[in-house]
Automatic annotation (TrEMBL):
The keyword Iron applies. Residues 6-227 form the NarG-like domain. The chain crosses the membrane at residues 12-29, 55-78, 90-111, 131-150, 190-217. The lineage of its organism: Bacteria, Pseudomonadati, Pseudomonadota, Alphaproteobacteria, Rhodospirillales. It holds the Pfam family Nitrate_red_gam. NCBIfam families: narI (TIGR00351). Keywords: Cell membrane, Electron transport, Heme, Iron, Membrane, Metal-binding, Nitrate assimilation, Oxidoreductase, Transmembrane, Transmembrane helix, Transport. Signal peptide: none annotated. It is found in: Cell membrane. It is a multi-pass membrane protein. The gene is narI. Coiled coil: none annotated. InterPro entries: Heme-iron_electron_transfer, NarG-like_domain, NarG-like_sf, Nitrate_red_gam. Its main location: membrane. This is Respiratory nitrate reductase subunit gamma.
Length: 235
C-alpha cells in the first residue's frame, strides 16, 4: 500500500499537475484574458504592501530558480565543474534559508494585511486567501526541511531529489522510487509544491506569465501626455 501510494503521488500526480499547469494557463489566456491580472490592492495600506510584496517576491524568485537549477541540472554537470554534493547541499541550505526567511516574512506581512484589514478582506476572494495560505504553508514546510537537511550534509538526499525530478521530466517509470525513503516533511513539501502547479491556472498566480522582463531591454521612455494631448498642462 505504501509503495502504491508513493508511486501514485510522486509518479503519476506530477504529470497531472504539469498538464493542468500548462494547458490550463493556455486556455485561461485564450478565453479569460480579462481575469489575467494580479488584482492589486495597493491603494490600501500601501507601505505594508510594498515591504511585504518586495520581500515575498524576492525570496520566492530565489527559491524557485534555486530549485529549478538545483533539481533539473544533470548531476554530471556539477561533477564536471567541480561542485561537490556536500557543498551543493550546504549552499542550498544557506541560500535557500536566507531566501526562505525573506519570503516568509513578506508572506506574513501580506497575510496579516489581507486578513487583518476589513477593507482589504472585503475586497479579497476566497481564492485569493486560499492561494496565499497555500504558499505560506509551503514556505513553512520548506524552512522545516532545513534541520533535517543539516543531518545529511553529504548531499545524498539531495541526489535522490535530483534523480526524482529529472526522472519525472524524462518520463522514467521508476522516478517515484527515489523519494520513497524521504522524510514525511519533504514528501509533504513536494506534494504541496506539485499542488501549487495544479491550482496555478485558476488563481491570480497566472500573472507570473506576464512578468514585464522585456522592460529591461526596451528602448526609450514611456511618453505620458496630459488630457489635452499636447504634453502641456492644461491652462
Amino acid at each position: 500500500m505504501g509503495d502504491y501510494l508513493n508511486t501514485l503521488v510522486f509518479g503519476y500526480y506530477p504529470y497531472i499537475c504539469l498538464a493542468v499547469f500548462f494547458l490550463g494557463s493556455l486556455i485561461r489566456f485564450d478565453r479569460e484574458q480579462f481575469t489575467w491580472r494580479s488584482g492589486s490592492s495597493q491603494l490600501l495600506r500601501r507601505k505594508q504592501l510594498r515591504l511585504g510584496s518586495n520581500l515575498f517576491h524576492l525570496g520566492v524568485l530565489v527559491i524557485f530558480f534555486g530549485h529549478l537549477v538545483g533539481l533539473l541540472t544533470p548531476i554530471a554537470v556539477f561533477d564536471a565543474i567541480g561542485i561537490g554534493h556536500g557543498f551543493k547541499q550546504v549552499m542550498a541550505i544557506v541560500i535557500g534559508g536566507i531566501a526562505g526567511v525573506a519570503a516568509l516574512v513578506g508572506a506574513t506581512l501580506l497575510l496579516h494585511r489581507r486578513l487583518g484589514d476589513p477593507r482589504i478582506r472585503a475586497n479579497s476572494s476566497v481564492n485569493d486567501n486560499a492561494v496565499l495560505i497555500l504558499l505560506y504553508v509551503q514556505l513553512v514546510l520548506g524552512m522545516a526541511t532545513i534541520p533535517i537537511s543539516l543531518g545529511h550534509l553529504d548531499g545524498h538526499m539531495m541526489l535522490n531529489f535530483m534523480a526524482w525530478a529529472q526522472g519525472i521530466w524524462t518520463f522514467q517509470p521508476n522516478a517515484a522510487a527515489h523519494v520513497a525513503g524521504a522524510h514525511w516533511i519533504f514528501k509533504l513539501h513536494l506534494f504541496l509544491g506539485l499542488t501549487t502547479f495544479l491550482v496555478f491556472p485558476f488563481t491570480r498566480l497566472v500573472h507570473v506569465w506576464s512578468a514585464p522582463v522585456w522592460y529591461l531591454g526596451r528602448r526609450g521612455y514611456q511618453i505620458v501626455r496630459t488630457r489635452n494631448g499636447n504634453g502641456r498642462k492644461p491652462v
